[in-house]
Write a structure and sequence with these properties.
Elements (H helix, E strand, L loop, with lengths): L4 E6 L10 H13 L3 E7 L8 E4 L2 E6 L9 H22 L6 E5 L4 H11 L3 E4 L4 H5 L5 H16 L2 E4 L2 H11 L6 E3 L2 H6 L1 H18 L1
Parallel strand pairs: 1-2, 1-5, 2-4, 5-6, 6-7, 7-8
Antiparallel strand pairs: 3-4
Length: 213
């Protein structure tokens, strides 16, 4: 069965400017070009009053941070995930077309992805743009280890991990001990031309064949 709809959960999406927004938007444009409906759930305090907007054939749902300021980064993103999960769950319950896959971006949205995968029994895709080991230069404080624990859970639970460099693929293999076969390295040009849709379809077909057995 071809994927008809994808749910993208990301902490950053255009026009919010940052490190992952351009790549995430390129990936979404590639899906739309393959006639896949896309709902994006993202954090944007400035646009949260809108609820959602339809832009470039994509429905973008905005949330605001439920607790701000928070006592620490882990608390902040944990509470942010509850709001991401709430809005994403409403898409499953209220949309006429239910998402076939859940695609989360960075460790910041992994907790929401894990819950949604468990509740709705849909394949989870994870895109990582950096690793905590890279960002912290291997620091092992409780703070760093907490983030690594979230990354580890996401890497383990994902049906497929998408990255944009061999450096990221090799880092994930080295740090978390997963097989290279679980990781797909693609360029932004490939994402724009439909490679992501191909990965989605492969994963859904695999899931269906496993469930039939």
């Amino acid at each position: 069965m071809a994927v008809k709809k994808a749910l993208i959960v990301t902490w950053e999406y255009s026009p919010k400017i940052g490190s992952i927004a351009p790549a995430c938007e390129t990936l979404v444009k590639g899906l739309v070009a393959q006639n896949i409906k896309v709902d994006v759930v993202t954090w944007d305090d400035w646009r949260a009053y809108m609820g959602f907007e339809d832009r470039d054939d994509v429905r973008i749902h905005y949330i605001s941070a439920p607790i701000s300021p928070a006592s620490n980064t882990i608390t902040f993103y944990a509470t942010l995930n509850t709001e991401l999960e709430r809005v994403a769950a409403s898409i499953f319950h209220e949309s006429p077309v239910v998402p076939d896959v859940i695609h989360v971006h960075e460790w910041i949205t992994v907790l929401a992805g894990l819950s949604l995968k468990s509740i709705f029994n849909k394949p989870l895709i994870l895109t990582l743009y950096s690793l905590e080991d890279h960002r912290s230069h291997g620091a092992t404080s409780p703070f760093n280890e907490s983030i690594k624990a979230i990354e580890r859970k996401g890497v383990k639970a994902a049906s497929k991990i998408i990255v944009f460099s061999n450096f990221m693929r090799d880092g994930i293999v080295d740090v978390y001990g997963v097989s290279k076969d679980k990781i797909c390295v693609m360029s932004l040009d490939e994402a724009l031309s439909g490679r992501t849709a191909e990965i989605y379809n492969e994963i859904v077909e695999q899931d269906q064949s496993i469930s039939v057995r």
